[in-house]
Inverse folding.
């Protein structure tokens, strides 16, 4: 008797391979060593101070392949460097796990787990674990995964503001960011312009978030002649005309040092105007031509406002987050109540490196 199977035998399944999970690293605190002075700030206090001083980071980077904007890791590091130095904070990274597998013909997919130890001046530290993932067709997948992990750790631990209004909720009715925030964005834009010049000499990679030195230039993009705002500022006849020229230069992405040159032209023209008015009351002698009428001087309030803008720009360039406290300590009154002469004198002190 022959027995015929109604259903063919199912193919044997491959044996199940159990992967032992990596040990879970949780956020933990490591106290300061024994004998550490009690007056040294602990890491939690240091993190709070860095959060208070860090400047906003916007989506100023552009991915031309997928056509979206993003916040680059270099902008986050630049925003954090000054506050971390001022508060005695530093970070020690460590790769806790590292896994790679091929993707396609040439790609490499990398998944890592980063352990960051955030130290304060007292020697205590906070342990923070963050994952990172990236893919690259060359040898940069691990670097890109580390950059992604570092960027999101900085944003999530230190709560870096994403726009100027995050600094103070009272600014919601005034969408114009403070001068130091505009200067910070101008420095970021200047770095991006330098990176776009360097990218022509570097090998492009298949980045999902290209950084500033690997941005691909737009094709067939016509660039017009650059406007000489310094020459326009020299020819400006009124403060209103100069304000329009300066605003146009800032909107065009002029760096902070270029805007400082425009402010220096305005200050020189104001001083010349004031000297001309002082001599206007004197009767010209015989044979002398009368001086042309000078522009009407600014009110003391307007002069003080212009001087304050220049002062805050200089403080931002010098990375001086304690500007208001230092000014009040020197002159005994806040900046809002000071005159243009005092403000200009303190700005000169900052530019000469004597305000620290």
């Amino acid at each position: 008797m022959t027995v015929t199977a109604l259903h063919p035998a199912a193919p044997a399944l491959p044996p199940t391979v159990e992967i032992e999970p990596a040990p879970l690293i949780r956020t933990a605190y490591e106290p300061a060593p024994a004998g550490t002075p009690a007056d040294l700030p602990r890491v939690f206090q240091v993190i709070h101070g860095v959060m208070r001083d860090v400047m906003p980071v916007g989506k100023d980077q552009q991915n031309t392949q997928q056509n979206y904007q993003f916040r680059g890791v270099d902008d986050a590091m630049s925003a954090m460097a000054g506050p971390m130095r001022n508060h005695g904070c530093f970070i020690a990274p460590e790769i806790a796990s590292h896994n790679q597998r091929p993707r396609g013909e040439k790609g490499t997919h990398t998944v890592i787990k980063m352990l960051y130890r955030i130290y304060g001046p007292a020697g205590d530290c906070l342990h923070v674990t963050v994952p990172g993932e990236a893919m690259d067709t060359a040898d940069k997948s691990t670097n890109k995964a580390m950059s992604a992990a570092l960027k999101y750790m900085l944003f999530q631990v230190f709560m870096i503001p994403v726009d100027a209004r995050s600094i103070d909720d009272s600014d919601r009715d005034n969408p114009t960011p403070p001068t130091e925030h505009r200067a910070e964005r101008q420095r970021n834009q200047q770095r991006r312009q330098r990176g776009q010049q360097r990218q022509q000499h570097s090998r492009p990679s298949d980045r999902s978030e290209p950084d500033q030195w690997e941005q691909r230039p737009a094709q067939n993009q016509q660039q017009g002649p650059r406007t000489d705002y310094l020459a326009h500022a020299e020819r400006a006849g009124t403060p209103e005309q100069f304000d329009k020229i300066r605003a146009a230069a800032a909107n065009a992405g002029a760096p902070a040092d270029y805007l400082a040159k425009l402010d220096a032209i305005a200050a020189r023209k104001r001083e010349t105007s004031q000297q001309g008015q002082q001599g206007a009351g004197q009767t010209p002698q015989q044979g002398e031509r009368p001086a042309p009428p000078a522009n009407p001087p600014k009110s003391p309030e307007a002069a003080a406002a212009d001087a304050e803008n220049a002062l805050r720009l200089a403080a931002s360039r010098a990375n001086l987050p304690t500007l208001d406290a230092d000014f009040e300590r020197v002159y005994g009154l806040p900046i809002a109540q000071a005159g243009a002469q005092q403000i200009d004198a303190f700005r000169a002190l900052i530019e000469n490196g004597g305000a620290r």
